[in-house]
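Q: Hi! First time doing this. I have a protein sequence and I read that you can turn it into a structure. Is that right? Here it is:
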Amino acid sequence: METFSIIFLVALAASLVVQLWLATRHLHHVKQHSAQVPSEFTEKISLEAHTKAATYTQVKTRYERIGLIIGTLLLLIWTLGGALNWLDQFWSGFSYSPLITGIAFLLSLIVITTVVDLPMSAYQTFVIEQRFGFNRTTPGVFFGDLVKQLLLTLIIGTPLIAVVLWLMGNAGEYWWLYVWAVWTGFGLFMMWAYPAFIAPLFNKFTPLDEGSLRQRIDNLLTRCGFKSNGIFIVDGSKRSGHGNAYFTGLGANKRIVFYDTLIESLNEDEIEAVLAHELGHFKRKHIIKRIGLMMFTTLIGLMALGWLIQQNWFYSGLGVEQSSIHSALALFMMVAPVFTFFIAPVSSYFMRKHEFEADDYAAQQSKAGWLIDALVKMYEENASTLTPDPLYSAFHDSHPPASIRIAHLNTQGA
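A: Yes, that's right. Below is the predicted 3D structure, encoded as structure tokens:
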């Protein structure tokens, strides 16, 4: 067995073992604290709701463990098992040009992985989410979404893949710099275009009606010096009982979006506080910082690929007999998460820092007590556990645990 094959297997095994260990810790921790509501929530969340959240979390975590094992086996099949090599040889057998072969190879890989993931996705939606009363998706909507996603991949992804592969093969030694510029430009374009042209293909967005809530939101936006392209209610209840609110878009195409389920569950004070939190991300430059970080990590990744693509051991060590641009790209995207998993807590730390800063901004522009009430309702209605395992949470959660976040808000005053 080649040296890089051994390195890959050791890294894969280490990643799997650590993730399974973290998931098991999480299961035990949530179960141990399921019989009693944490003291800071006893007056706001019932034991029944707390127990439901604990059970929901345990079911999802067990499902996650199974998914980790299946995902690891599939990765081994694709790489050392020879499936990726077979797919490469299949398309190479048609004697198309390298560019056409690469496009066909990557698009078919996307389609195959989507189909392979379908049973797990359907189980999560129609069994787990259904069991806890969150699923509102019909089989028609579920498969309709799948078809739309695949069509969008073909329509949008094909030209992008073509440009990337062409640059990798024809732009010289520093192709990775040109690909980085194209990838970054595409990402920014999609951030701008998604709310107006893609999201409406899946959901209905209705402008928020005039009234007291609209007036409060307009006043908040004025105080914060924020301009948007509209305030919309999305029919999230078409698919799920979970609620949320978010900003989307870029530049003049920014939108404020509330799930209809959230509008129904929160009062006007709480909605204003949630919006103030989201505004905090913009005012504290979190969006720009995250875009900058994405650009930096993408550049580093492409630089690494620029070196790996020239190493024969990279292909042979991962089960691919013939080196090619498209197989290098596929291998890198499949294998990179194995080696980057252990830096996840670093990313989570900075994401949580941003959440605290956005909470502070919300407390300044609205009231900390209103945001606390909103968060408690959202924890309860989304069946989010109040007692995650701290170490598991450090690897997986971009938001601070409920107790820590509420304690921080309490320091900001009511």
